[in-house]
Amino acid sequence: MPKKYYVVWVGRETGVFTSWAYTRKLIDKFPQAKYKSFKTRDEADTAYTTGRYTYGKNMVKGEAKASTIKTQTAVKSAAAKPPDMPIASSKSFSVNIYCDGACDPNPGEAGSGLSVYRDGKLSELWYGLYNSQGTNNSAELNALHQALTIAKGEIENGKDVQILCDSRYAIDCITNWAFSWKKKGWKRKKDGDIKNLEIIQQAHELYNRIRNNVLVLHVQAHIGIEGNELADRMSVFGIDQQAQSFCRYSDIIDKQKILAFRTG
After folding, report:
1. pTM of the model
2. Nearest Cα to 115, choosing from 95, 92, 98, 94?
3. What's the stated role of this polypeptide (predicted)?
4. 3-state helix, strand, coil in the chain (%, to 5)
């Protein structure tokens, strides 16, 4: 188990990481980088998903002091939590797709998972896209891409679809930031400065085709939401099985049994 978990809110790549050597490359000399270390994964996940900038004794060496970080900058940061982003929708959708990615350590072995609900009932579970040298962000992007692929088929069959993803990074990359990146020739400022570009391009193209018929929302991770928890277990199951293709879970769906699987 890692001794520390490193959260990067603003850097070359954002997320929760377990390697300081890797994390340092993401924030070293990056303008106004925001990052912090945490003792537990839960603390790190909560801090990252809520977009909170809380500084104190755990602050990693080399980080700017809290007094030098303007609140306005933190709020406007692309990696920070949008203040009006919904957590869930009150509308009843005929199809709800939960997606999740896992990587342990990060970077390291990665996998993606989905749980699909039709008319309020669990219908399918999916897992795979194993990558021995992946990251949590690449796994989350792969999961959202697969969710969009399933959504497209459901929309073509006249269904209304909602996708629920616990990665703000993946959602923003595909449904928000990609529009401006595309206008700039798929770059922020210079060629090659967007990580995971290939999967972002594929997922964004698909999203752009169906965006008027699908709702993509953020859901809080690890708070007991069944669909999210099952997608989490499937992402780790994909790692354990080293399943490189994206596979439908073929065993009888015993939710209690699956929820007892290793977590991400």
Report:
1. 0.71
2. 98
3. Endonuclease that specifically degrades the RNA of RNA-DNA hybrids.
4. 40, 25, 40
**Which residues fall within 8 angstroms of residue 258, CB to CB, at 6 or more apart?**
125, 230, 233, 234
On whether the CB atoms of residues 254 and 139 are closer than 8 A, the answer is no
pLDDT in tens, 184-222: 999 999 999 999 999 999 999 999 999 999 999 998 898
Q: Select the CATH number that applies to the domain covering 95-260 from these four: 3.40.190.150, 2.170.150.70, 3.10.450.50, 3.30.420.10.
A: 3.30.420.10
> Do the Cβ atoms of 210 and 156 come closer than 8 Å?
no
Token pair 């923003």: residue: 172
Distance CA 181, CA 189 (A): 9
**Backbone phi and psi for residue 96, each to the nearest 5 degrees, phi listed first:** -120, 125
Q: What is the rounded distance in angstroms from the CA atom of residue 146 to the CA atom of residue 84?
A: 26
pLDDT tens string 69-87: 332 333 333 333 333 333 3
Superfamily of domain 5-50: Ribonuclease H1, N-terminal domain (3.40.970.10)
Query: Based on C-alpha coordinates, what's the Rg of the chain?
Result: 18
**Residue 223: what pLDDT?**
87
DSSP state of 177: I
Contact between residue 112 and residue 238 where contact means Cβ atoms under 8 Å apart: yes
**Can you give the residue ranges of every domain in the chain?**
5-50, 95-260
Residues 13 and 137 sit within 8 Å (Cβ to Cβ)? yes
Check residue 51 and give its pLDDT. Answer: 60
What is the b/e burial string over 133-149, where b = at least 16 CB atoms within 10 angstroms of the residue's CB? ebbbbbbbbbbbbbbbb
Q: 264, 138 in Cβ contact below 8 A?
A: no
Enclosing H/E stretch for 27: helix 20-27
Decide if pLDDT at 226 tops 70.
yes
